[in-house]
Amino acid sequence: MSDERHIAFLRQAIKIATQNVESGEGGPFGAVVVREGRVLATGVNRVTAMNDPTAHAEMMAVREACRILGDFRLTGCEIYCSSEPCPMCLAAIYWARAERIYYAATRVEAVAVGFDDQFIHDEMAMDIAGRSIPAQRLLAEEALTPFEHWTAQQGRVHY
Predict the structure, then answer these.
(1) Pseudo-torsion of CA 97, 90, 5, 23, nearest 10°?
(2) Cα-atom radius of gyration of the chain, to the nearest Å?
(3) 44-84, pLDDT tens digit by residue?
(4) Is residue 58 among the annotated active site residues?
(5) 3 state SS for the chain
(6) Torsion angle of alpha carbons 158, 67, 30, 125, nearest 10°?
(7) Are 105 and 117 in contact (CB under 8 A)?
(8) What's the half-sphere exposure (Cβ side, CA atoms, 13 Å) at 138?
(9) Going residue by residue through the chain (159 aa), what tens digit of pLDDT does each one get?
(10) Angstrom distances, CA of residue 49 to CA of 33, 45, 56
């Protein structure tokens, strides 16, 4: 795909992010999922509108694209984001196995307007015991039961 096409899709992500802010429906983030040069899905930040901390633009676009494709994988897809994806969105994009990410604003630029996810990057790099939200393992003896059932299941779909 030509650079002009990439720029056009990225401009679309920026445009829907701007429209989302102007509508008062959410934050300044937009995402576009493209496959074979065609827009499959778009998403805008809906965190406050839906009272859902996972309703980031990328998550909304990934969910819709997967629904349209009838698959949890975004094989052959590219994602255009108005801003560098946060750790949650980046993980979802990786889990969906998209082929490429294009973004406009950096996370440093997002920090300048009050969207700081650096603490999450920092927390993820820490040992569990050092994180700011305490986590405690329980039921170690029972923990493997679902995995045992999974590995014994015939015809399971690997992801």
Answers:
(1) 130
(2) 18
(3) 999 999 999 999 999 999 999 999 999 999 999 999 999 99
(4) yes
(5) CCHHHHHHHHHHHHHHHHHHHHHCCCCCCEEEEEECCEEEEEEECCHHHHCCCCCCHHHHHHHHHHHHHCCCCCCCEEEEEEECCCHHHHHHHHHHCCCEEEEEECHHHHHCCCCCCHHHHHHHHCCHHHCCCCCCCCCCCCCCHHHHHHHHCCCCCCC
(6) -20
(7) no
(8) 3
(9) 679 999 999 999 999 999 999 999 999 999 999 999 999 999 999 999 999 999 999 999 999 999 999 999 999 999 999 999 999 999 999 999 999 999 999 999 999 999 988 899 899 999 999 999 999 999 999 999 999 999 999 998 888
(10) 22, 9, 11
The angle subtended at Cα 149 by Cα 91 and Cα 70, nearest 5°, is 45
Q: Is the dihedral of CA 68, 36, 56, 125 positive or negative?
A: positive
Is there a contact between 104 and 81 (Cβ–Cβ < 8 Å)? yes
pTM: 0.91
Provide φ and ψ at 140, rounded to 5°. -55, -35
Which one of the listed residues 22, 58, 84, 148 is annotated catalytic? 58
